[in-house]
Amino acid sequence: MVKPSIPKGTRDFTPVEMMRRNYIFDTIRTVFHRHAYLPIETPAMENLSTLMGKYGEEGDRLLFKILNSGDFTKGVDFQDDTKSVNKLASELCEKGLRYDLTVPFARFIVQHQSELTFPFKRYQMQPVWRADRPQKGRYREFYQCDADIIGSNSLLNEAELVEITDEIFRAFGINIVMKINNRKILSGIAEIFCSADQVTDLCVALDKLDKIGREAVCAEMLERGISQEAVCGMAPLFELEGLSNGEVLDKLEQMLAASETGRKGVEELRTVLDYVSKMQIATELQIDVTLARGLNYYTGAIFEIKAKDVAMGSISGGGRYDNLTGIFGLKGMSGVGISYGAERIYDVLNELNLFPQHIMTPITAMFVNFGGDDELYALAGLKALRDAGVPAEIYPDSVKMGKQMNYANAKGIPYVIMAGENERTQGVYTLKNMQTGEQQALQIDDIIGIWKKNPR
Amino acid sequence: MVKPSIPKGTRDFTPVEMMRRNYIFDTIRTVFHRHAYLPIETPAMENLSTLMGKYGEEGDRLLFKILNSGDFTKGVDFQDDTKSVNKLASELCEKGLRYDLTVPFARFIVQHQSELTFPFKRYQMQPVWRADRPQKGRYREFYQCDADIIGSNSLLNEAELVEITDEIFRAFGINIVMKINNRKILSGIAEIFCSADQVTDLCVALDKLDKIGREAVCAEMLERGISQEAVCGMAPLFELEGLSNGEVLDKLEQMLAASETGRKGVEELRTVLDYVSKMQIATELQIDVTLARGLNYYTGAIFEIKAKDVAMGSISGGGRYDNLTGIFGLKGMSGVGISYGAERIYDVLNELNLFPQHIMTPITAMFVNFGGDDELYALAGLKALRDAGVPAEIYPDSVKMGKQMNYANAKGIPYVIMAGENERTQGVYTLKNMQTGEQQALQIDDIIGIWKKNPR
To answer: Minimal CA–CA distance to B168: which of B349, B360, B359?
Structure first.
């Protein structure tokens, strides 16, 4: 008998983990709802034609592919030695597991455009799968929580995403810093210091700043064909830290004056910050012109969020994309969105001990099972409790009291209720507070009353 | 450009469908919680060694298999003509998508036994995947909602599952009939009328009673080697309909007197019905000795639920299994569980028009966007509403009023809030009830008050 296991990079969630995860999802969902985002879901499997080529070569390689059903060998020539592994995979597999929520969302929009009302605000909280090498904090199955608005160019949407982020992380009690940039600023920088078509090289290099530092980024720029002169010219861009957002905007305005795109980027950023300044937001919002977030589809705002009190990569990111649905044939749909990573948030909450205590005690009371008529009497009390909305249970077997109490202790159940012949004849139940050890004989309605006063 | 699509048998869920589906999941979850079941989740992917051989040959065929990552051809001999398609699949794929929640649950129990407190009551609501031929009401990705208690032989657990079923379907407003049988009764029948080792043939044939009728079932029994005499002897078993449960139990007691297993089955059934009779249950609970539910792993109670007012297959089923974790090396863990099919419940609620109206209007109010200072004034009102927990939005662009009102109408938003210069100088907002057309100029707190009185 082989010891059962699960695929590497995947996880089971026990009740304790589930309650914590549900707390994360519920908190995020509550904020999304309040901001009038509506839920959608897409299938775990997409046609590979939908997914391939959307995430770069690396992404294609990391897609989980599903073997065709039935006789998957039919029509496949296995003798052809010149056939690449990728080609063979494409003959064996038509479907793959979704890699993120953004591409399926774009596909969804195009497919359902006639049923939807635009601007369309949707949220989506589902697992995604990547055949990445598993390591600490990186899984092959993990959840993304995305909010996007599509079909509106208004920069109010960007500001709302900042507001939502602020509300979510305040609800969690996590101090964050939210960085913001604009792809048009990066384009302007490329135009002015190197050339417009080098913006991708610039972004790819800048994206590594956090990991490898400024010097190595400059080296990478040179390696990617950006001139020494351009690299030197950009030096001031690395020295904006410590300035206020207003000062940064003013400096950028000067530096990028000769680029129309660059000026547009600065203006957009100014508008977003203007909106945000009127929104009573606690979150620290920082312009960071080196923020690029490799994803090539961003065309306007770029966001990134980090926790202040924990050393960890970004826990959330997003931006505006003007062309996303274009890949599926629908032009002119601008969208802006943000994605919160449930796993990273979990780790931060865990490390900072920020999970609220009350989410861990979902069961309020356990009735001890004394069997026979006592059991029936307990069942009547149990029903009254549940009818009042109190999550409660009875130990299913009338085994030794000690075993039943151990069970209640192990599960962290705060109240144990006992009723034997004495209680039964008096129409009461003995309620034991498991923390204080205190016992009281009470009517069932009084027990319900105690719970209603403090519904945990 | 290919029109985007999704794999056959899978579905997207638009907000309207999501709200209905979430209503189903929330209703079921609330009942599970109240009965102290705790949530777990398992990965979408399991090792194929966990899944293969657990669902019969048909099941193995219907598993979605995931192509190994990286160079999946390495070490695979494609030239061997004698290799079966199944053998080749097993060389190309180590992982598969879960087929149900029961086998992963059994695997979970064995793997995490040291972290869990037994008896363990868990619920699990996750999608499963089957490469079945898609047809009306049958999908390749669908959700199961399972509740199981493992590690307790008490028949109180069976009664509780009846109680939970009663509460769930009363909450939905669906009239159901719940059928109950006991595998030991079927074993007793086999022992007495044919032979103990024919119980599987008996079950497989009986399982088709609903679809093919009594005569065809008898023909199938004969075909499967059950003697003519046995088939005739069993005739009275088909004629118990219309009798009360008590009468059925008495008859069975007589008929199965010579079988210890059969007597045990009758006694178990009697105990369950006894508990249930004390639980104020509205659901009609019917003994049906022909209920077999093909699944070979049931060893005690068998349940099946059908909606009364809709012609549709079963919407839920379950039973007791003594040996489930045995396949993963953990003996002596008896469990009993039930599985509710979200898709079937959706169809019943839809057909009977039972979805509550309020779940369809998740957004309470939309502010019209007049731009400039009016926009900022609207944003202040919006923030006040959201802070009070009212889901609300502002149209993101200051486009023509007509377009904004069309948007609110299309989304079914019940209240539209307008504020121009007049309102702004007076510190009020004009609230328009979209159903009655009525308009009122109100302070933002009064608008919040209206919502708090009727929080929809």
So the answer is: B349
